[in-house]
């Protein structure tokens, strides 16, 4: 079973395994139609397309950020439509860095699904290795809705975050440093960060070749961030609850399990103008 990351070479050996399902989670936030267009132009054989807004979010929800967490029954129905059961090994990939694939990974992990891994290096590395790509859509044998519900103890609301910070908990923002400081804000109507949050840009989880750092390196880096706290003392956030999962994936790859996700994240936090905003490094 692969529960955090998987390399391209290993996936190649299992493309014809009926107990494995591959999900293509590529996204271009500047062009909502681009991800599915990329999938149609070429994808890993057998891959189903996982749309960030249609499949991995509930865009009907207001006040919970740009990518609200989906309803249990909607997501479990989607998994059934993809042919995913509790015994399925799921592999998720995106264009390269894993930021969108990690969202699907965390959704499944929060349901209690253990056999789900992100393709290390993503579609970029798959292509660089010259591995097969197809434009054919897979034949999917649908199954019943996935028999589980989300573990809500792993998902923090706005009020949960306020209480968490009041009790000295650790809130870690995965956005780039310039967005955390409020120097720039390309996506949301306010710049800055939640007062009391710390910054750990998700890109720090990657080595120079674009793949994840070793478990040992990540353990050391997150251990320094935790400063004696346990992983369960950490809540991860970002702009909309998507790239925050990258830090959760990196921690799990390092054996640091138990951290939570602030689902609404920055875009949800600023939906209420009464909530305070901080800028700068602190």
Task: Give the amount of beta strand, in percent.
Answer: 5-15%
Structural class by helix and strand composition: alpha/beta
Kindly state the percentage of residues in helix.
25-40%
Number of DSSP helices? 10
Distance between the termini: 41 Å
Rounded radius of gyration (Å): 18 Å
Low-confidence stretches: none
**Overall outline:** globular
Order of helices and strands: EHEHEHEHEHEHEHEHEHEH
Number of extended strands: 10
Mind explaining what this structure looks like?
This protein has 282 residues and is of the alpha/beta class. The protein has 10 helices and 10 strands. Strand 4 (89-93), helix 4 and strand 5 (116-119) form a beta-alpha-beta unit. The longest helix is centred in the C-terminal third of the chain and has 12 residues, at 215-226. The protein starts with a strand and ends in a 13-residue tail after the last helix. The model has no long low-confidence stretch (mean pLDDT 96).
